[in-house]
Amino acid sequence: MEIENKIKHVAIIMDGNGRWAQQQGHQRGFGHENGVESVRSVVEGACELGIPYLTLYAFSTENWNRPKEEIDLLMGLLGKAIAEEVDKLHANGVRLLTTGRMENLPEDCQVALQKAMEKTAGNTRLNLVLALSYSGRSEIADMAKAIARKAVAGDLNPDDIDENTVRQHLYHPEIPDVDLMIRTGGDVRVSNFLLWEIAYAELFFTPVLWPDFRKDHLREIVTQFSTRERRFGKTGEQVRAH
Ligand code: FPP
Prior knowledge:
Undecaprenyl pyrophosphate synthetase, 46% helix, 9 helices, six-stranded parallel beta sheet, globular, alpha/beta, single chain, 6 strands, 15% strand, binds farnesyl diphosphate
């Protein structure tokens, strides 16, 4: 398992639920409901592969612009999935975390998430991070605000601000940068996801729609990842000499 062990953080843009449902003559919500099974499978896969951090883009700030019925359905599914899965997650050593502006979620979702986070806080096998009401640009704006406040209060000299200062003021400074970012559903874009954290990530785009995505797909992408040479700005010779 040497290859997989090198991956610390996988991030997934779960796209294609609506199209999957519509292809089968169903409402979009049917795709979201079936997407929950894919989440389950991928979480299992990440545990089996020994990946310590998995971040899933479950709801973007832009998703608030969707029709109200679809938002209500997604929030309902989220609350239900958390309540139903928390014991199993806990039994499997999964720690649940969230990233994003949690305060925008319905109260009952916030409560369910808070309870699940408290229950699983001591687990270490897999950190499952749900990005909810998340936007990479908002995270960067919130970081700037936090740094500016410290500077105004006299706790931070602007001349001392460097990349590490920025990192320390993101939502989760303790989480390693993304090694591998996957987007399902065929589109080739980043859509405001973890903009700072994906600076050196390998990007994989698959046409598979999210409700069809399973841990075997994850395993296959992880195998392909291992054949890519990550140079972080160095030459291939420098990297291979290491
Ligand atoms: C994108 O498909 C998917 C989402 C906006 C939500 C993902 C949510 C789930 C899989 C269900 C609940 C999540 C958890 C963590 C239990 P889309 O609707 O944009 O699809 P389209 O591009 O085909 O329209």
